[in-house]
Amino acid sequence: MMTDIEIAQSVQMKPITEIAKTAGIDDKYLEQYGNYKAKVDLSLLKESDRKEGKLILVTAITPTPAGEGKTTTTIGLADGMRRIGKNVMVALREPSLGPVFGVKGGAAGGGYAQVVPMEDINLHFTGDFHAIGAANNLLAAMLDNHIYQGNSLNIDPRRITWKRCVDMNDRQLRFVTDGLGGRVNGVPREDGYDITVASEIMAVLCLATSITDLKERLSRIIVGYTYDEKPVTAGELKAAGAMTALLKDALKPNLVQTLEGTPALVHGGPFANIAHGCNSVMATKLAMKLGDYAVTEAGFGADLGAEKFLDIKCRYAGLKPDAVVIVATIRALKMHGGLAKTELGTENLEALEKGIPNLLRHVSNIKNVYKLPSVVAVNRFPTDTDAEVELIIEKCKELGVNVVLSNVWAEGGKGGEELAKEVVALCEQPNDFTFSYDLDCSIEEKIEAVVKKVYGGDGITVLPAAKKQIATLVANGYEGLPICVAKTQYSFSDDATKLGAPDNFTVTIKNVKVSAGAGFIVVLTGDIMTMPGLPKVPAAEKIDVDENGRISGLF
């Protein structure tokens, strides 16, 4: 069996100019990066008079080590829609280098449903993440320099919240002490690194709607607090202009193609357990402007990615989704039902029945909380039995939601045609899209709404430190922002071991901080890692390149 990279390399890509033509992008808006990738100038959005197409969100059940295939389904669905004659664009996130070399793998799809050139997309691509890292670290350098040069803003070095970043899984950098070695080498302090995708600048870039908006958001970023506890911003450090200069090209969406030649915009990639986990607003809007249908995805399960896509991104960007696809695998649902990963290959209706409530809660949330039409896409594996498939269809029918088998990994767009037909039909249904909370609720009420309505919990426990932080945010005028809950992706609850659809639980709120540039309040519920480490055997060990520059081992 061929690996993902072998499949990707076996397909002859079309020149990016041809893909642009398919998407209706005039040459004057195209900035080529070689023959197979390009950036699209933002002026196209202003100058195009096409009305926006329908918006389709692809989300999934709560992730398990068995895998769900959300990106693969997103790509295969777009190819399937094109095969049935629809004008469609796909909008995805860019992969982070850290997980590519770690354990998770890339984010360019899999099998015969991939975006290409997959090696480029998974590695440096067009340099967006490097630009974000440079802007992040320029701000850190200007902050420490300000303190060294006399500290006229009265910044307390013990209350600096801004970290440096690097796009690599490097646990050694989580906690560092810097500024050592005498007076000329800076002011000694405790510091640390985040992975680039966890930087607030990533979230800012993905929510910005223009260069002006980007600059304004960057200037609002809080980097620390003064000795009398007042916030200090990037704007006060006079850093926003230079940061924007570093990011001006990174703000432009990247155009690539699927294996079947469907135009794809791949842009931005904030983590979904600590940020909002969606590709950029600019890419989504451009996809809707260019296609009659735009297919996009949000990270992790629907309780994280979809909740944030709907409550944060759609709210800020004025987007209204037309349909939602919830991806599941029978293997993953059996894990939610208590089976070990080694036991997933044999039929087990009892374990599946125990795991299905996880899927049903996600389906119910999309239908009853957000009032959106949805379909369940079951990624079929050879080991899945007809009886297992039948059980899922039956349970979803009780909620009035259809189930479609998807075989895009093995068959590409052909394996996604049935799903495509169902999604096109859903897009014609009227919907009463609504958010899970109103912005004028208190911070605690917003958190409680998400916990009760979306997670299925009983309520929240706010620790004393978090209560104090909430009071400070209210005093500083941040109460009206949406919330971005940082919690484990492996459970509806804040306890990763509670699989399936747990109930009778409360969520403990440990810390609450503002991402003032991104425009949301981050609510930390557990030990959320903003700098991952590498596993015992990193994926990097298998990656190689031959004398002709051909890469191997990249999945």
Write the layout of secondary structure elements.
Blueprint: H1 4-10, H2 16-23, E1 30-32, E2 38-40, H3 43-47, E3 54-60, H4 70-83, E4 88-92, H5 97-101, E5 109-110, E6 113-116, H6 118-122, H7 128-148, E7 155-160, E8 164-166, E9 176-178, E10 189-191, E11 193-195, H8 200-207, H9 211-220, E12 222-226, E13 231-233, H10 240-247, E14 254-258, E15 263-266, H11 281-290, E16 293-297, H12 302-317, E17 323-328, H13 330-336, H14 349-369, E18 374-379, H15 386-398, E19 402-406, H16 408-411, H17 417-427, H18 443-455, E20 459-462, H19 464-475, E21 483-486, E22 506-509, E23 511-515, E24 520-524, E25 544-545, E26 551-552
Parallel strand pairs: 3-16, 3-17, 4-15, 4-16, 8-11, 17-18, 18-19, 20-22, 21-24
Antiparallel strand pairs: 1-2, 2-14, 5-6, 6-14, 7-12, 9-10, 12-13, 14-15, 23-24, 25-26
Total of DSSP H or I helical runs spanning 4+ residues: 19
**Biggest pleated-sheet summary:** 12 strands, mixed
Based on secondary structure, the structural category is alpha/beta
Uncertain regions: pLDDT < 50 for 5+ in a row? none
Q: Count the strands?
A: 26
Choose one word for the global shape: globular
Distance between the termini: 13 Å
How much beta, percentage-wise? 15-25%
Q: Mean pLDDT score, rounded?
A: 94
